[in-house]
Amino acid sequence: VFHLLQEPGAIANKPATSLPLAPQLQFALRNLALRGEPFAEVAAAINDIAKSLEWVASKTGPFASINIEHTHAHAVVAGISGVEERSDVALGLTIMAPYSRFPDHIQYRSRVFLALSDCEFSCDDKGWQRGSIGSIFFNEAGHNVAMRCTARPLLAAWCHVER
Residue 13: what pLDDT? Predict the structure, then answer.
């Protein structure tokens, strides 16, 4: 992913969507910035680009929290529908409101998640793993994945190679 991202893609000029979870994103970014450098730089960069992203919600599924369609959003920063349009990789963000659980689902590409807040992930049917800022989770293609948070919002970056 890092190698592919060295070659920049085209910058999209499309209207951004409003983020209903803006207060949760701001809370998560403040907590991230409090961790010092380089996390403060990451928080500032996400804050700068957040208004330009197209935030979308996924549908519900097995074991999801009630109203998950309204308590989470994803945005593609670089990828097929991202601010940086490209077809080789996808790099995105997920924000979830407190006490939310994203449904168990199978991913069709191997994906890496970077926790930018406290959270829990269930990857590759290995059970729940607790993560904090900077934790990395990997889920192989074709395996189940889920994520959840408790009293604080979940913020995670994710990436995968498109094939």
Answer: 79
Q: At 19, give phi and psi (nearest 5°).
A: -105, 105
Residue linked to tokens 């406290």: 118
Q: What is the largest CA-CA distance in the chain?
A: 41
- How far is the C-alpha of 17 from the C-alpha of 117, rounded, in Å? 23
Listed as ranges, residues in the chain with pLDDT below 70 are 16, 62
| Residues making up the chain, counted from first to last | 163
Phi, psi of 151 (to 5 degrees): -70, -15
- The predicted-structure confidence for 113-134, as pLDDT tens digits, reads as follows 999 999 999 987 788 999 999 9
Partners of residue 130 on adjacent β-strands: 120
- Would you say 116 and 42 are in contact if contact means Cβ atoms under 8 Å apart? yes
Cα–Cα distance for residue pair 64/61, rounded to 1 Å? 6
Which letter, b or e, does each residue of 106-115 get, where b requires 16 or more Cβ atoms within 10 Å of its Cβ?
A: ebeeebbbbb
**What does the block give as tokens for 95?**
């924000």
